[in-house]
What we know:
It comes from Agrobacterium fabrum. This is Transcriptional regulator, GntR family. Keywords: DNA-binding, Transcription, Transcription regulation. One of its GO terms (molecular function) is DNA binding. This protein folds into 2 domains: 9-71, Winged helix-like DNA-binding domain superfamily/Winged helix DNA-binding domain (Arc Repressor Mutant, subunit A); 76-235, GntR ligand-binding domain-like (Four Helix Bundle (Hemerythrin (Met), subunit A)). By secondary structure, the chain is mostly helical. It has helices at 2-23, 34-41, 45-57, 76-100, 104-118, 130-146, 151-160, 179-200, 204-215, 217-228, and strands at 31-32, 61-63, 69-71. The longest helix is centred in the middle third of the chain and has 25 residues, at 76-100. It is built from 10 helices and 3 strands, in the order H-E-H-H-E-E-H-H-H-H-H-H-H.
Amino acid sequence: MRQVDAATHGGRAVIELREKILSGELPGGMRLFEVSTAELLDISRTPVREALSRLTEEGLLNRLPGGGFVVRRFGFADVVDAIEVRGVMEGTAARLAAERGVSKVALEEIGATVQQLDLCFGDRVDDVDFDGYAALNRIFHHQLAALCGSEMIRREVERASSLPFASPSAFLPDKANIGAFRRSLRGAQEQHKAIVAAIVAREGARAEAVAREHSRTARTNLEYMIREAPELIAQVPGLALISD
């Protein structure tokens, strides 16, 4: 029972701390210590210690040499680099899947996800089931990372996607009412289809190229927000950490 309670408190500590960091409540550069953080969350130090270590692994915190942690600050270049790294890893996953071959079951599963994504689009160009698309998009990218059968590749894709602004769903929240973003999802869906088609055809180079280009949608969306809708930046998880 105590182990269950510890796991529950640990999970709660991770979730609450992550939310406070991504929202900017705990801003970049702020120092965090076990005792004060435990008091903030009203839980014991052990789950807080585990949560701080977990968020350090996720890249949201840095461990200080003299003890304690500090919330990381990110620049625009860091965001671009994080997106690029995810693209490289997902491209590698797609290429290896095409070169090594994929089981019929796995192809049917990711194919079914693509078909479900199609159902998120209506007759009008900007008619999109936004919530449905976001959920299925996460599933698609999870399946893509696992297609080549390499646990190492899957873990590295997950690691590259751990920062909120580098994930496959980066910049999707809070954009449901912006027509330009809704329309861009149709292009992203065509890329989903092209990636799967290249894997089925055993075209490794094409699968990798399309997957890498697909990841850059996040950068395109970020640049659009900065240029056309800067008021939305504060609403996107993680962008509160960007200092320039």
